[in-house]
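Long-time lurker. I teach an intro course on protein structure, and each term I like to show students one example going from raw sequence to a predicted 3D structure in token notation. This year I'd like something fresh instead of my usual example. Would anyone be willing to generate the tokens for the chain below so I can use it in lecture? Attribution to the forum is fine with me.
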Amino acid sequence: MERFETSDHVGIAYEVHGQGSPVVVCHGGPNTTHEYLVEDLSPLEDHATLIFHDYRGSGCSDSAPRATYTYERLADDVDELRARLALNRVSVLAHSIGGYVALEYALRHPERCERLILMSCTPAGTWQRTALPTLRALGLARFMKLCGRASVYALWWSWRRSSDEKTLARFSIMGVMQEGQAAFRDKVAAREVFADNDNAATLEQIGFRTDLTGELARIACPVLIVFGDHDAPFAAGAQLLAAHLPNARTISFKDVGHHPLVEEHNRTISAIADALM
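-- Reply from a regular --
Happy to contribute to a lecture. Here you go:
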């Protein structure tokens, strides 16, 4: 991987694949790195120059002052990476919480943002905005399963000291809301390797306080929204994105969870390639 230093002296690790129009990839998390997306996106390398990076505090990038672990600062890091590569404009492809980075980029640097491709993303994490539509998308059976996981967490983990095991137990609750077809769960799990990122706790907390819904009308660039209808929180988020973005197109996959690139790989790649044409 290559590295560059941001304006506030944080080393950001990045790598570039492919040829064609430039696309900055924003990974999910907060306990992941860019690596799980490299192979799945490789068919796009004939259509685009894919620029992968780890956020400050993630993976191979440097840790930074906790106050700088914000989605606004991560978006500014994307723009500094764009400038480092001497690119005039870039598209931004995001997965999961990377959507917050991508949306902030389009809001903060509209003149540099060619288009957005949002896979399993949401503009909001607040319970006021998302709780009811998420429960509707979840359905009764998965709601009961969710209650069971939450009860186990409350009884066995909630009172314990912070640890990787406690974090994974908490993530297993979210997993119920995001799970797709059983046949793909091992492949999905292989992409959700836990990374003990320095920024994880802060970004997670901020994510649940974030609501960009009221600002979406300011994003004029074309947006492709891709999601699975079994990914309850992000299916709810996709509805918010589609309702408030003025220039958006939506693709929904039936019975698919949080990783359309795994469960509907060919159709997802085709949709992204078409968006980049």
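Some talking points for your students: The chain has a mean pLDDT of 93. The chain has one domain: 2-127+195-276.
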